[in-house]
Structure formats: C-alpha cells, structure tokens
Design brief:
Elements lengths: L14 H10 L5 H12 L13 H10 L6 E7 L5 E6 L5 E8 L3 E5 L3 E3 L8 H4 L2 E4 L2 H16 L33 E6 L9 H12 L11 E5 L3 H9 L5 E5 L5 H7 L8 H10 L9 E6 L7 H11 L5 E6 L13 H13 L3 E4 L30
Parallel strand pairs: 4-7, 7-8, 8-9, 9-10, 10-11, 11-12
Antiparallel strand pairs: 1-2, 2-3, 3-4, 5-6
Helix pairs in contact: 1-2, 5-6, 7-9, 10-11
The protein binds S-adenosyl-L-homocysteine.
Length: about 375
C-alpha cells in the first residue's frame, strides 16, 4: 500500500528488516538493534530523535523512510474513562482501538483487521463487513498511540513502569486503592476488530515486538489473543518461542448451536478447537479462557450451562461470560441478571472457574462486539478461511 510520501514506514519492521537496512547503509549490525529500541521501546516519533545514531545514518534513514503511526481521527470518551480511538489508514480504511483504565491495571484492546469476515451473528464488526488485513505498523501503531497519549513520550529508558517498583514501595491494597496512572501495568488484548489468526503473519510480527523486553515489553501473561480457533494458525502460534495468553470464543455448548451463531463452526469443529486450546502452552502455567457471550433466551439457559459443563468437563481453563452488548443492528437481547446468576452457579458447582465481564465504554459503542466499519466504507467479499 502506497504511503502519502511514497516512502516505506520504519515503524513495524522487525529485526531482520532493520538489519537489512543497516547492511544496505554499510553500517554494523548493532545499528539495527539501536533503531529497534528507538522504535518500540522508546517509541520515538522521528528519526531525528535517535540520537545515538550518527548524523549520516539519521539523514540516510529519513531520506528513504517514513516513521509514522496511524492517524487518529476521533477519540470517544466514555463516562467510565474508556476512550475509543478511531484511526484512518492510508487507503481510507478505519479501525478502532479501546483504552480501558481500571483500578489496578490499564488495558488496550487492538484490532488486527479492518472489519471482520467471520460474521458471528451477534457481533457488530461482523455484521458491518470485512475490508482487509492490517499490516504490522498498523497493529503496533494502535498500541504506541494509546501508550503515548496516556503516559506521554519516552522518559528515560524504562518501558515497563511496574518493574522499577521495589516491593517495599508497593502500596498495600488497604492503604492505597490504586496505583497512580503511570505506574499501572499495561495489558494488551487482541480483541478488537477482526480475527487475528486469519491475519497470522502480520499479527505474529506485532506480537513479537509487543512481548520483546527490548520492544514494548508487555509481559506474555498480560497479552491475550482472542480467537474463534482457526486451527492451522493456532497450531503455528503454539510453535512460537514466546506466546501470549489465549482466549477462545466459544459462545455455545454444542456444535448445532455454535453453527447457528458462528458460521466458522462449519470449518473448525468446537471439539477440535477445545482439544487444540488444551494443548496450548499458556504463559506461567495459566489456563486458557473460554469466552461465552450470553444471548437472552438463546444460549443462557440452565440446559446450556449444563451442556457447557459436559463440553469442558475435566478441561483446564476458565469461562468468561460476556453479557451481550447491544446495538440497534444486533438482533439479540442481553441475558437477565437471574439467568447470568444461574449460569454462573451451575458452572461454579461443577468447579469451573467463571467470571462475568463488566462492559466498558458501552455509551460510546466501545464494548466487545460494538466496534465496526464506519458508514460509507465498502465491505469486500470475505476471504476463505485458511
Ligand atoms: N475474532 C476474535 C477477536 C474478537 S474478540 C474472536 O472472535 O475471538 C471480541 C470478543 O467479543 C469475542 O469473544 C466476541 O465473540 C465478543 N463479542 C462479539 N460481539 C459481542 C457483543 N455484541 N457483545 C458481547 N461480546 C461480543
């Protein structure tokens, strides 16, 4: 895709690509590492800031490359502090990311595709269509922008504020309710628009830079990728040397019901997806999360909860219930509070760890499943899942 200047973007390149650029300039290999640190750990906005490069290298880089993050065209502020970012990309595609402040952490929810080809019937992203895969700089640029806007620019080389917090200084829960904003650890969830495992190669380049201690330095256990379970890509992800946490979008306890809600079930069977998820090496011996959107009267009844217990029986993992977030285009109702309680009770009695996701940013359509292509964007036909 052509950038406005016609120059390729430095941001988003991996070590190998930066190494090739350094070699092309006749520079030693460590130059590439210096540039890498400036791009992802310090998140420099211009090549001119890269002060440990020689002037000649800086000039050569700036002459041949851009250094850009995606353009923010709108910020929506929710009453609960959530901020929804709308980015416009070079070809006019728009994507959304969400910043979610919480008591003890802060989370960035990022997109990996403009739109989504999966067409899950309760998800606004799917309903409004699919445009294209995002490339690494477009994925990483969402994180860089939100981190930059929340904590300002680089201040002295430490990318993970929680690490420089000696234990004895850490305020106890009883004395201080929450750490100051800049000291809260970052969580990144790949749960925005799109199916990350249908955009495997670009997503993995981004995941590596996010988890790299010399990059964004997000701890693997604080990075979660959510997927419907694109099996060949999930198998590949397991082979990565460093992997994020895994969340599987389940949403139904049986093949028949899942097929009605999620067309991808035709291609990748629910049992096979669970079997693969059980083999996935979760960071620090954690457990896979099974996401289950509760749709009033459709999949939220005690029979469904019991079927879910049978489906997951004996599996390692926890269930995250997501009461439906509504939008006028979504043809379902949220579950009643009683149905949520009863569903939880049945799972807990079967010794399945269960949590209920609190909706964030609903008033600005920033909650799960509410991100969508803007009016006037033309969706393209969905590609065939690999
Ligand atoms: N394609 C990936 C990434 C999207 S994650 C996946 O499906 O896992 C977004 C999560 O929000 C998924 O679990 C998705 O099923 C859920 N979701 C979608 N629409 C929703 C809605 N209207 N209300 C609540 N959750 C929704």
């Amino acid at each position: 895709m052509q950038s406005p200047s016609g120059k390729p973007n430095l941001f988003g390149l991996d070590r190998a690509a930066l190494g090739a650029i350094a070699a092309g300039l006749g520079e030693p290999a460590y130059r590439a590492e210096q540039i890498y640190l400036w791009l992802y750990r310090r998140r420099a906005r211009t090549v001119a800031e890269m002060t440990d490069l020689t002037k000649g290298v800086r000039e050569a880089l700036a002459a041949t490359h851009d250094l850009r993050w995606p353009e923010v065209v709108e910020r929506g502020h929710s009453r609960d502090g959530t901020i929804k970012y709308l980015f416009r990309l070079d070809d006019g595609a728009t994507i959304e990311s969400v910043y979610i402040p919480e008591d003890r952490r802060r989370t960035i929810c990022i997109s990996t595709q403009a739109g989504c080809p999966l067409k899950c019937v309760f998800c606004l992203t799917g309903i409004s269509g699919y445009k294209r895969n995002l490339v690494p700089w477009e994925i990483l640029g969402q994180v860089a922008t939100v981190m930059h806007e929340t904590e300002g620019g680089f201040r002295g080389g430490r990318s993970q504020p929680s690490r420089r917090w000696p234990q004895r200084e850490r305020p106890s829960r009883s004395r201080v309710s929450a750490p100051p904003e800049r000291r809260k650890a970052w969580n990144v969830v790949v749960m925005g628009m799109g199916e990350p495992l249908l955009n495997y190669d670009n997503t993995v380049v981004a995941l590596r830079a996010l988890m790299d201690p010399d990059g964004f330095a997000v701890a693997p256990k604080k990075l979660t990728l959510s997927t419907v379970g694109i099996l060949p890509a999930l198998e590949k992800l397991m082979q990565e040397p460093v992997r994020p946490n895994l969340a599987i979008s389940l949403h139904a306890p049986t093949k028949a019901l899942r097929r009605e809600l999620m067309p991808i079930e035709e291609r990748y069977d629910i049992q096979d997806v669970i079997a693969a998820a059980q083999r996935y090496p979760i960071p620090h011996g954690g457990a896979v999360t099974y996401e289950y959107v509760l749709l009033g009267g459709v999949n939220d009844q005690p029979t469904h909860a019991r079927a879910l217990v049978r489906l997951l029986g004996g599996s390692r993992g926890k269930v995250n219930l997501i009461p439906l977030n509504q939008a006028p285009e979504i043809p379902f109702a949220p579950p009643s509070p009683e149905a949520i309680d009863e569903f939880c009770r049945i799972l807990s009695e079967a010794r399945i760890t269960v949590s209920v996701r609190r909706p964030r940013g609903q008033d600005i359509l920033a909650a799960c499943g509410q991100l969508h292509l803007k009016r006037g964007e033309v969706p393209v036909p969905a590609p065939v899942a690999s």
